[in-house]
Amino acid sequence: MVRRRPDRPCRAECARSSYPGDRFNRYWEPYGDGSTPVVESQASVATEAFWNKPPEAVFRQGLTARRGKSLDLQWPPAPLPAASYYLALYFQDNRAPSALSWRVFDVAVNGQLFFAGLNVSTAGSMVYGAAWLLSGQTRITLTPAPDSPVGPVINAAELMMVVPLGGRTHPRDVIGMEALARGFLNPPSDWRGDPCLPKGTSWTGVTCNEDPLARVIAINLTNYRVGGSISDHIANLTAVSSIWLVGNNLTGPIPDMSPLHHLASLHLEDNGLTGPLPESLGSLTRLQELSVQNNNLQGSIPSSIRNRAMGDISFRFKYTPGNNLS
């Protein structure tokens, strides 16, 4: 049996798999206490018929009980915080297809009936609850029908905490962040979907405000070993005040950032950026920190930046060592 627990992150030591056939790139963890019988599937499952498209691999094994016996599982192993959850359970009769390849049983969660008279065949079945209230330890009980020829079986389970969005992210920021993600090589693995929402789950290194129409206000990917280039669409992030892309493997030019009127801190040092230093950076009146040392920039330092560095003691500009700027 495999289980999916996206309601909490799995640490590196977890034995988890992301199956190539899973279009949603879900992570699945093995589950079993060593005492519950494990069965191997004898038939494939056409998972395209399932609306949530589980990978076929999750049906390869299942946990079962003897004929007439209930199967009682404590899953997930860890207690859950009180919340509403999406819970999906997957089943398949493991035997070779025949007229007797079926099982009927009731499914209960914490003693409450989840599904009555579930008839499971070799084609596979799935039952789910979109908003099931759970708290603490959770028990899943499969009770066979009196005339079922074999005991119950379960192959996989999926659990997600339901988190209200509470708003939405500004479309221009979504476009900008998605373009940044496409331009980067090996960005953080969670750089997909909405960059700000649900609240508290923004992309790694991304800080958003809490306005009803959320805006990206800071990006910090210092020493994340990100490659690729900085997309021109970074100019979409007109509420951003801080950009730190220090110590990565970024190449290509520094794009125009003239629309970023709230930008106060721009750190691009220790990369492989090339080309000139954009003149427009000197026109950003709120910019107080500009660090581009240890890159491969060339050309003249724009007068707008040079004049600010000489006449504004609060403006900190660093471009050496490295670069060929004069």
Automatic annotation (TrEMBL):
**Protein origin, superkingdom:** Eukaryota
Query: What GO CC terms are in its UniProt record?
Result: membrane
In which compartments does the protein localize? Membrane
Any Pfam family the entry gives: Malectin_like
Family annotation (Gene3D superfamilies): Galactose-binding lectin (2.60.120.430), Ribonuclease Inhibitor (3.80.10.10)
Report the residue ranges that make up the Malectin-like domain in this protein. Answer: 17-161
Q: How does it sit in the membrane?
A: Single-pass membrane protein
Q: What is its main location?
A: membrane
- Please identify the protein, giving its name as recorded: Malectin-like domain-containing protein
